[in-house]
Amino acid sequence: MMLLEREPVLASLRQYAHEASQGEGRLVLIAGEAGAGKSVLVERFQRDLPDAIWSWGACDGLSTPQPLAPLFDLARDLGGTLEDLCRGQPERDELFAALLTQVTGDDRLNVIVIEDIHWADEATLDLMRFLTRRIRAASVLVIATYRGDWLAPSSPLRLALGELAARRWARRLELPPLSVEAVRTMADGTGLDAGQLYRLTGGNPFYVTEMLEAGTHGVPLSARDATLSRTGRLSGTARQVLETAALMGVRIDAGLLADRQSELDELSASGLLVDEGIGLRFRHEIARLAIAQEIPAHRQALIHARILNALRAGGSRDDARMAFHAEGAGDEE
Ligand SMILES: Nc1ncnc2c1ncn2[C@@H]1O[C@H](COP(=O)(O)OP(=O)(O)OP(=O)(O)O)[C@@H](O)[C@H]1O
Ligand SMILES: [Mg+2]
Fold first, then answer.
1. Given the CA of residue 204, which atom of ligand 1 is nearest to it?
2. pTM score, whole prediction
3. Which of 42, 125, 203, 323 is 20 to 30 A off residue 100, Cα-Cα?
4. Are residues 152 and 244 in the same domain?
5. Is residue 110 lining ligand 1, measured as CB closer than 6 Å?
6. Which of 152, 174, 196 marks a domain boundary?
7. What is the pLDDT averaged over residues 42-71?
8. What is the number of domains present in the chain?
């Protein structure tokens, strides 16, 4: 697969790997929204460094994640004492020390990948702190990926990140969405309209890929599932506000939701809504469509009626919008 517009990030990674291989360990924190291409980037990078010793671990989004799950993954790749320890009932300190001994006990570069640390449990964050403090003068490159837009202000990772990123040997990389040109390249020959694809997906590579595979401008199942897995974590009232927002169209009239500030904060923290440029809006139009489509027809009519009433009560002069909601409410008159 061709990775578009990632050459600069790959060049930085190569540079950090070079420095690490000279005995100046590096921690690289790679942020990007869900589907930005963090995993494929690191997988692609592995091909550039075939001689390094790679070990991979991942955090998962279970409601009660297994503590230190990524360390157990690393142990499977690294084998040796660490893997033996993992079979018993090891103390945490023993595990950390064994990992460190194994990745520093080799002249070759060791690359440790820990994916999706936005889900990391406290013990895994401690592992990150432990490693980060001790790799400075070792041939070790630690690469951690996370969804930057998933971090609530109070999330443990946000606190840990400040501390990790403050190290002189830490580096941060951000994966931006793809440009409209890249989306055009991907859509080439598919018969789908690149401009519309870009508008729907905001250049998110996952959404673009899924829509191209589905071959339509509608919401593919996988994109729908990705969106709904996200809304499933919200509080009930935030979900209600989200549904109302989804039926408002591309621009959300925040004035109509002025009394729902804490829900709007929750939705912004979840990364589903952003407040920039044209004001409050869905980060991805395709997510808005997916949410709107899930609302049963009778409830859609109710929500439209409520929005219409609120617009009327506020003395709106926006006839087109009122007509849109009147139609949705089944209010022909
Ligand atoms: N630079 C790119 N050019 C073309 N396609 C890309 C690019 N980056 C990612 N993709 C496509 O987008 C999909 C999603 O990428 P990936 O799984 O790496 O995202 P992610 O950031 O790891 O998401 P998550 O946070 O859900 O783990 C990939 O399957 C790939 O097909
Ligand atoms: Mg990933």
1. 12
2. 0.84
3. 42
4. no
5. no
6. 174
7. 89
8. 2
